[in-house]
Amino acid sequence: MSVRATRRGERGAVLLIVTVLGLLAMAVWGLAWRATHDAIRVEGFVVQRDARARSVLPALAHGIALLRLGHPPTDPYECIDTVADGAETHACTLVFTSQGSSETWRVDARLATEEEQSELPPMPATFTDQG
């Protein structure tokens, strides 16, 4: 076997090793990029969930507690509940809709728009029982 054939074989092996290492480096970079992207998305979901837990969920709880005291005057009934969270206040729209019977109600809550804040009444302290 000649020296020239041996060197050519070594060059082929080195090229193969460099190619494999390059592919592995690109795969690790891809995994790191994907993990970072996923972590940023999850953080966004956590921020939204925390904001909803401080605003819309307490308003929904107030609406459900209000249903225990009576029935809304109209079906559907919309009103605004103001939720205080430390230094912030959140205006939330509550929509009460009966579900076929006067004893089954659906309560939806969302952050109120400026238009809803000016048009809808504030949430009453109690409903006068109509049913």
Output the keywords:
131 residues, three-stranded antiparallel beta sheet, 3 helices
Task: Provide the fold topology.
Layout: H1 3-54, H2 56-67, E1 77-85, E2 88-98, E3 105-111, H3 114-119
Antiparallel strand pairs: 1-2, 2-3
What structural class should be given to the helix and strand makeup? Answer: alpha+beta
Topology pattern, helix = H, strand = E: HHEEEH
Radius of gyration: 31 Å
* Shape designation: rod-shaped
Q: Give the low-pLDDT segments.
A: none
Describe the structure in your own words:
The chain is α+β, with helices and mostly antiparallel strands and 131 residues long. It has a domain at 55-119. 53% of the residues lie in helices and 21% in strands. Strand 1 and strand 2 (88-98) form a beta hairpin. The radius of gyration is 31 Å and the shape is rod-shaped. It starts with a helix and ends in a 12-residue tail after the last helix. The mean pLDDT is 84.
Task: Summarize the structure in short.
The protein has 131 residues and is of the alpha+beta class. It has helices at 3-54, 56-67, 114-119; strands spanning 77-85, 88-98, 105-111. It has a domain at 55-119.
